[in-house]
Write a structure and sequence with these properties.
This protein is of the alpha/beta class and 301 residues long. It is built from 12 helices and 12 strands. A hairpin with a 4-residue loop joins strand 7 and strand 8. Helix 2 crosses helix 3, helix 9 crosses helix 12 and helix 10 packs antiparallel against helix 11. The chain is globular, with a radius of gyration of 20 Å.
Length: 301
């Protein structure tokens, strides 16, 4: 039986997801957690957690020195820096690291239709996992998490719900179902994967907090706010066309609409539990209340 990871270092710990993973690991007495951060980063971290600084170009010699003695690297760096994980993987192999969790968190990157629309996101993530597979013979194991959107950010960011104005933007009829996961649950899943690597190594783990539709969220938001929301219905294909037009001109304001399309329209991998086995039970993830999570979000607006 493979022993659990003990010394775990988190890369990208100052982003949207990293703090939740650090917090989950830090709360468990088994782990010795540290953080890898670039010299130029302005992020602040819990004072009791060791922080290792590295050059902005992730110099391999520096990385090998920092990673030596670590059992696992958990990477949550931003999508635009995904390619920099190859240097980390090379260093991890040289340093004798046992396990690597790539910054895969999010949509199912193996959905070809979605990858065709957003190759700049999907292709790089796929390539990193392929690279990790090529290092299995060197003794480095990996686990990649498919989580769908980070629920509490995505709801008001691109899924179409304006908490302040109480306005919903619904694609077509809004009844297609899809998966999303809260950041605290992702943190819990990563922690539990590190505790039982024999069950989680060299595979994708598909998890979710909710399997919902836009109309489910609208009904829940109306219930928790005690108010009728304004709703605008948009034609999904027209939204996609306009978003792609903008992106073709280098205008990234079309990105939220395209992310909404990929999540909510059938065939683009949003409802990955239709075809994949849920790892929720394997990862001992709790049942969550959509209403409670949404109530918390409306209170913070």
């Amino acid at each position: 039986m493979t022993s659990p990871m003990k010394k775990v270092i988190v890369v990208g710990a100052g982003g949207h997801l990293g703090p939740h993973i650090v917090s989950a690991l830090d709360a468990h007495p088994h782990f010795e957690v540290s953080i890898l951060s670039r010299h130029s980063s302005k992020s602040t971290f819990p004072p009791h957690i060791p922080v290792h600084r590295v050059s902005d170009n992730y110099d391999e010699t520096e990385l090998v020195e920092i990673l030596t003695g670590q059992d696992a690297v958990i990477c949550t760096i931003a999508t635009e820096a995904i390619h920099q994980q190859k240097a980390m993987i090379n260093a991890a192999v040289k340093a004798g690291v046992r396990h690597f969790v790539p910054s895969e968190f999010g949509h199912d990157t193996w959905n070809d239709q979605a990858a065709e629309l957003l190759p700049q996101f999907y292709t790089a993530k796929r390539q990193v996992v392929e690279y990790l597979k090529s290092k299995e013979g060197d003794g480095l194991k990996w686990t990649a998490f498919v989580t769908g959107p980070f629920f509490e950010i995505a709801v008001s960011n691109f899924l179409g719900f304006d908490m302040e104005r109480r306005h919903a933007t619904i694609l077509d009829h809004g009844t297609n179902r899809w998966s999303a996961t809260t950041r605290s649950t992702i943190g819990l899943a990563v922690k539990n994967a590190m505790l039982s690597p024999e069950r989680t190594s060299n595979k994708y783990l598909f998890i979710e907090s909710f399997n919902v539709s836009q109309v489910d969220i609208l009904a829940s938001l109306e219930a928790v706010t005690g108010a009728k929301w304004d709703v605008t219905y948009h034609d999904a294909e027209e939204e996609k066309r306009l978003a792609l037009e903008k992106l073709a001109k280098g205008n990234y304001s079309g990105m939220p609409a395209l992310m909404r399309y990929i999540t909510c329209v059938k065939g683009y991998g949003g409802n990955y539990m239709d075809s994949e086995e849920s790892a929720n039970k394997l990862m001992s993830l709790p049942a969550e209340s959509l209403g409670e999570v949404l109530a918390g979000l409306t209170r913070h607006e």
